[in-house]
Structures are given as C-alpha cells and as structure tokens.
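CORE FACILITY INTAKE
Project code: CF-77B
Contact: R.S. (postdoc)
Sample description: multi-component assembly, two entities in total
Requested service: structural model of the whole complex
Turnaround: standard
Below are the sequence entries exactly as provided by the requester. Do not edit them.
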Amino acid sequence: MAGLAILKRIYLAVYNWVVFAGWLQVLYWAVQTLRTSGYEAVYAAVERPLQFAQTAAILEIFHGMFGLVRSPVSATLPQIGSRIYVTWAILWSFPETRTSPIVSSLVLSWSITELIRYSFFGMREAFGITPSFLQWLRYSTFYILYPTGISSEVGLILTALPYVKVSEKYCLRMPNRLNIAFDNYFATLFTLASYIPGSPYMYTYMIGQRAKALAKAKKSA
Amino acid sequence: MLVTVTSRSGKEVVKGGIQLSENATVKDLKASIHKRTGNLYPERQRLSLPLVSGETRPIVLDGDKRLCDVFPEGSDHIVILKDLGPQVKYSTLFFFEYVGPLFIYAMFYFLPLYKFVGLLEKRVIYPVQTYATIYWCFYYFKRIMETFFVHKFSHATSPLSFVFRNCCYYWSFAIFIAYFVNHPYYTPVGETQMYIGFGLGIICQLANFYCHIILKNLRDPKGQGGYRIPRGFLFNYITCANYTTEIYQGLGFNIATQTVAGYSFLVVAAYIMSHWAAFRCLVQK
C-alpha cells in the first residue's frame, strides 16, 4: 500500500531527526562543560539528553524486527544492548563512575557517531538524498570511534566493578520461594567477557557494511 | 543418459558428467557422485533441478524417483548439487543432547560443587531434591532409550553443526536448573504440591511413551517415506500429542520443584514445540 509506505517514511524521518536533536544536545553540553568546568561535570550536564537519545534507540530493535529498516537484529541488538547497559546499569546506577574522565571520551565517541548516523538516515528518509560526504563519514569514522567508544564502555564498567561488588545492588539472594538468584558482580564480569567476541564482531560487521556501501556507490556513480 | 552435475554458481562439480542407465534413480546418481567426489556421501548431497525463471525455491530431488521421470521433457539433464556439510545420524544428535543433562544434573546432586561458589559444603537434602534427581535422570534415560529402540527417523541425517547448537541449548538449561534445585539454600514446596507435580509428570511420561509407540508403528515396515496422520489415544484430540505430553510432564516437574530456571526452560521448550506442531498441523491439512 502506498499510504503505508509514506507513513513509514514520515515516521522514520521524524524518529531520526528527533534523536539527532537529542545527540546534538549531548555533544553541545559535553563540549561546553569540558571548556568551562572540566570532565567531572560532564555527566551531570548531559544526563537527560543522553538517557533520552540512547533509550529511544530501543525502538530500532523493533524497526528491524518488523522490517521497517533493513538492519539485521543480530547487529543492532548487541550495539543497543551495550549502550543501554552502560547508560543505565553503570552510569545511572553507580554515581561513583560519573566523575571519571572516561565519561567524556564515551560521550564524545557516542554523540559524534550517532550524529553522523541519524543525520544520514534522516536525510534519506526526509529528503531522499544520501550526500556522499555524509555517507563517507558514516562508513569511515567508525574506524576510530568504535575503538574509542568500546574502550570507554569497558573502562567505565571496570571503574564500576568494585562498587557493584560492595553495594550488592540488583542482587537477588537465596533462599526465596522462586528458588532463583542473581549476582550482579558475576553478571558484570560476564558482560565484560562478552566484549571479547562482541567487539571484533561489530567492528568487522561495519567493515563489511562499508565495503557493500562503497560498492553500491561506485555502481550507481 | 548423461547427467551434468553443477554447483549453485554454475561450476561443474563432476567433470564430464555422470553416465547412468535409463532406469537409474536419484539414489543411483547420488552413489555415483559419491564415488566420483570421494567425500560427498549421499546424505551430504542435496540435488535439485535448475531454477526456472520466476521460481525462488528449487525442486529438491527425492531419492527413489527415476531420473527419466524427474527431468522435464526435452530439457538438459542438469542437476544442482549443494553440499550440506558433514552430517550425523539423528540418533547420534539426540544421544549427545540427552546424555549431557543426565550426567550434569546428577553431578550437581552428588558432588560438592557449591563450595566453588563460596557456599557451604554440608547441606540438608530435602526429599523433593532426591525425587527430582531420580525423575530428571530417568526422564533423559528414557529419551536415550527411545532414541535407539523406539523412534524411527525419516531423514537419515542432520548437519553436524546442530550437535553443537542443540547441546548448548540442552546442556546450558540442565546446568541452570540443576544448580538451583540442588542449591544449599533451595526452598522446597509443600508435600502435597510435590506429589501432585511428580504424579502429573509420571502420568504424562507414560502417555508420552505410548504416543511414541503409536508414531513408531505409523512408519511402513518397508521403509517407505511419506507422512501419515497418527490416530488413536490422544491423537484423536490433539495433533501433536507427543509434544503435549512432553510439555505437561515438564509442568509436573516444575510444580514439584518450583524454580524460575525450570519454568523458563518449560516456556522455551513449549514455544519451540508449538512451532513444530503448527507446521505439522499445516502438513496435515
């Protein structure tokens, strides 16, 4: 149905630009705070737009599931999973991590990557154009920003680790009637371990996407 | 007749093709291909006809069909060969899936493993934990016995990769459940609930066994393939009664032991079996 296609396009255009605006705020406040107050204050300045923009990305899992976009769930799930985990289970849950300098590298890596990505898709959905410069940025900046972003995520999780252990936050102990237990410290270690296969997987996925995109661009040129 | 064997990309797999008699079957062709290629035993081969324009799914060639019946009038005798990768028998696959949980659960019951997570060595063992171990281990023992002595399998084989994938599924859940039921801080349910649970489980296991017998007797003793609709017993009311009894036996175990781990396994298994049953229902229509 043609009507459905137009609806989908409007929805995706709005989605991409709204989240873009969120990340723009994050980048702006991060840079401003670094220039005026210093890295300890960065989290406090960006908290709300960061939580908004990052949490909104959960919708992208459904976009993939229901075929609104072509990205496979296998690529979006680990990416969004790790982002949500760091945003909520680490930064929001353990305030002791907020004053780390790693927060700055994290926030800068994430916001720059996302600004490029959302503007790229926003342009395509809203205006039907895919500016080659934006496309080049999208498929090239990850070479630097993925490593810096991933290292920042891992760094922050490591920073939080002692607090996770001591506070016993989110832990569920036995005995209980449901005979279930959850140890946050073990779960956090397990999450850290998942970065070992996860990071090369995501990195090589992007390299593959780059090759595909550039081949397509060459064909249509 | 001369049959040309190519890969899906069009490259010739067997140089010069294969010369066969006019009455040769697909099975004979597969045997010849095996002889010529060396490593591609018949179970590893998927033979299909070249795609006609407009088709998306290829027509896979059935073993017993004669080649002269398979090729359309006047077409070239070309078959497309896909290597399905190393194959294992279904009985092999099932054996490894089931032997893991059998030993894993027993280990958690008998061995002092919990000291490795910093818990006490000495613990009180509740009757329900003992019965659960007997029930669980007997259940997987039954499944292994059925694999070798009851079930008659249609496809001879399954890809090797399924062994790793399926064992991950079965063995991980076995560890998950065995850990919590045998835990030093396990909280048992009331005695009545335990008896109801195990009672339901035993009845459903017996029913499930009978369903398997019915299914086994469906298969033509001459080994002819094809799907037959099971009749009698619960099959008069339920399409895949064997899956139903399987699920309810799991429910019985969980009513008796009451763990999140056990119930989550039940939910996942029921979900998977519902998919299989839905497909079976479709085939029956």
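Facility notes:
- Chain A has a mean pLDDT of 92.
- Chain A is about 80% helix and 0% strand.
Invoice: internal transfer
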